[in-house]
Design brief:
The chain folds into 2 domains: 34 residues; 59 residues, no CATH class. Helix content is 62%, strand content 0%.
């Protein structure tokens, strides 16, 4: 038997073996019992503006600038996905307002 014939025979054996296993897989898949799929769990909603404002006001004393406060809020809460990349997003406004609120409340005579 020549090398060419051996390769042809080898290829024939592989193809028939694959065809048999492919048919077996198709039969198994057609007769297989399938369990019902688990229900899809909806994603957790993003934090609301009220929740972010409350968290920032409660934690503003530990941060020096709005960037640090906004990044900490992003780590602690589920903020919208584009919040940190968009300079005009309301998260940045809330961080600035929270720092201003903290400075004003620290200066008020009621706190002293």
């Amino acid at each position: 038997m020549s090398v060419k014939q051996e390769h042809r025979y080898y290829r024939l054996v592989l193809e028939t073996g694959r065809a048999v296993t492919d048919r077996q897989r198709e039969i198994e898949a057609a007769t297989m019992e399938r369990k019902p799929r688990p229900p899809v769990i909806p994603p957790k909603p993003n934090a609301s503006r009220r929740q972010v404002r409350s968290w920032m006001r409660n934690n503003a004393d530990g941060y020096d600038c709005a960037t640090q406060l906004a990044e900490a809020a992003n780590a602690a809460l589920d903020l919208p996905p584009d919040a940190m990349n968009d300079d005009t997003h309301w998260v940045w406004d809330e961080a600035i307002y929270a720092l201003e609120w903290h400075e004003l409340s620290a200066e008020s005579p009621l706190c002293q």
